[in-house]
């Protein structure tokens, strides 16, 4: 049986083979990547704050060039609007855990409450501000 499968795969004309990823699969990977990125940025921010408060070490000057690269890549990958939302969420919402935070639709002025990275993703998707996949 294994040999038959191997022969069948070898006999496929790979030049004329076209494999496409489904839209659902692309969206799932996009969401996972977004959440991993945001959660990692939050962890970095929390670690930097912890080192400063516990040991008095300010790592911002050391980390600055790394963050410049990270910010540039996020702007390039997600576009200006989503990047601004990500950095607002990572830097702002963490400091105000007990308050409600909102993302406002520029067109309709409707406000969407966000507490988690998943909610941030869902609102950005709903508002269609992601760069095209």
Task: Give a description of the structure.
The protein is mostly helical and 133 residues long. The chain has one domain (36-133). Helix content is 63%, strand content 6%. The protein has 5 helices and 2 strands, in the order ααααββα. It has helices at 2-10, 23-55, 60-78, 80-92, 117-126; strands at residues 101-104, 111-114. A two-stranded antiparallel ribbon has the order 1-2. A hairpin with a 6-residue loop joins strand 1 and strand 2 (111-114). Helix 3 (60-78) runs antiparallel to helix 4 (80-92). The radius of gyration is 21 Å and the shape is extended. The mean pLDDT is 87.
Strand content: 5-15%
SSE series? HHHHEEH
Q: How much helicity do the residues have?
A: 55-70%
Specify the biggest β-sheet. 2 strands, antiparallel
Number of strands: 2
Query: What topology, given as strand order, has the largest sheet?
Result: 1-2
Judged by helices, strands and strand pairing, the structural class is mainly alpha
Q: Which stretches are poorly predicted, pLDDT < 50 over at least 5 residues?
A: none
Radius of gyration from CA coordinates: 21 Å
Number of helices: 5
Distance between the termini: 40 Å
Gross morphology: extended
**Total number of distinct structural domains:** 1
Output mean pLDDT. 87
Quick structural summary:
With 133 residues, the protein is mainly alpha-helical. It contains five helices and two strands; from the N terminus they run ααααββα.
């Amino acid at each position: 049986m294994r040999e038959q499968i191997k022969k069948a795969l070898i006999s496929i004309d790979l030049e004329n083979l076209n494999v496409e990823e489904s839209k659902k699969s692309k969206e799932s990977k996009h969401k996972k990547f977004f959440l991993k990125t945001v959660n990692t940025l939050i962890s970095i921010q929390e670690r930097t704050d912890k080192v400063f408060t516990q040991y008095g070490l300010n790592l911002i000057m050391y980390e600055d060039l790394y963050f410049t690269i990270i910010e540039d890549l996020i702007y390039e990958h997600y576009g200006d609007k989503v990047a601004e939302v990500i950095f607002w969420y990572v830097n702002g919402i963490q400091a105000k855990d007990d308050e409600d935070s909102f993302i406002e639709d520029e067109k309709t002025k409707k406000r969407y409450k966000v507490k988690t990275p998943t909610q941030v993703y869902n609102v950005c998707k709903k508002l269609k501000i992601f760069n095209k996949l």
